[in-house]
Amino acid sequence: MLALVARTFLIDTDTASDDAVALIMALRAPDVRVAAITVVAGNVDLEQATRNALYTVELCGADVPVFSGAEKPLLRTYQNASWFHGGDGLGDHDYPAPRQSAQKLHAVDAIIQTIDANPGLVLVTLGPLTNIALALSKCPDMVAKVSRCVIMGGAPCCEGNVTPAAEYNIWVDPEAARIVMRSGLPVELIGWQLCRADAVLRERDIEHVQAFHNKLAHFAIECNGQAHAAYKIQTGEDGICLPDPVAMCLALDSTVGIDWSEHYVDVETQSELTRGMTVVDRLNVVQDDRNRAVWTPALRGRKATCAGASITNAGKNRSSRHCDNDASAVHLSIGCASQEFSLPRTSQKLFPFHNYAASQHNHIGHARDLNALEH
């Protein structure tokens, strides 16, 4: 049996409930080495987000350095999302303080150093893009050493979750998002619209996860309790919406995306009405002379890879056949970004809580990222 060849991930997060599940997915993936976790203020303040990241790492029994970064957006007043995730970001269950502390190096410098030391790594962002924008400003050459930049953010061509026009991660620091989108990074933008509908964990899915009776499965559901209630208020839909695990699923297995397209994307920073809107050139009209003046800065970058707006259940049913009493994490997908991005329509490989040891695949396929919540 061939050994798995580890891929290197660098994860930037504003660790709250769905971020925690996404971290579990990466930390438990047998073919992924998480070189560093960097933390940014977003869902909760920087100190709390760092604490949550450290707690999640310890819960997984992992040895991964955590670095604290930007405490506020580049220009905007910081606004958290504690109404959705709870005051502590993890549903206010009074989880114990982590034993470890964050590293002393600032997250921005950690990002630069980690990318430089691991050319070809996969950069996954789960929060506002402040840390990444600051790193790019200090070291624009780092773009060439990133093989993929998977961003959970944006609401291309659909409604947002914080305003009618914008998704939270982009809205909270639109200037940072614009810098990243125009940087030349190989962006795969995973929009909020792809994290709804069939991607939402319904009651049957929740019961399936809880039935494994292990600490990771319990934590994954429990810490999202407040988010479950908030999502019902926000959308009228009953279930747990997990945007960051959707993005992580696609980072772990890009083949989950079944319908991608590449488009120029820019971010609105001037209008308060549409602040943070991810504007996608789906009809490829920006090359028209009448549009070039406005889009010239974005045209200097590359197109983003963006995912389509629907998910099927085929992968969910398939992966459920591989479950046992060890749990995994969510495996969903979708994507999109600014420069030349790809927008995929995706199939859903959803939360098969499966024992990695029981499925020693060389190329793990659908079982790979769904096996995170073990013991």
What does this protein look like?
The longest helix is centred in the N-terminal third of the chain and has 14 residues, at 46-59. Helix 1 (17-28) packs parallel to helix 2, helix 1 packs parallel to helix 11 and helix 4 (107-117) crosses helix 5 (130-138). The radius of gyration is 19 Å and the shape is globular. Residues 309-371 have low confidence and may be disordered. It is built from 13 helices and 13 strands. The protein has one domain (7-370): Inosine-uridine Nucleoside N-ribohydrolase, Chain A, CATH 3.90.245.10. With 375 residues, the protein is α/β, with parallel strands linked by helices. The chain has a 6-stranded parallel β-sheet with strand order 3-2-1-4-5-6, with helices on both faces.
Supply database-style keywords.
375 residues, Inosine-uridine Nucleoside N-ribohydrolase, Chain A, five-stranded mixed beta sheet, 13 helices
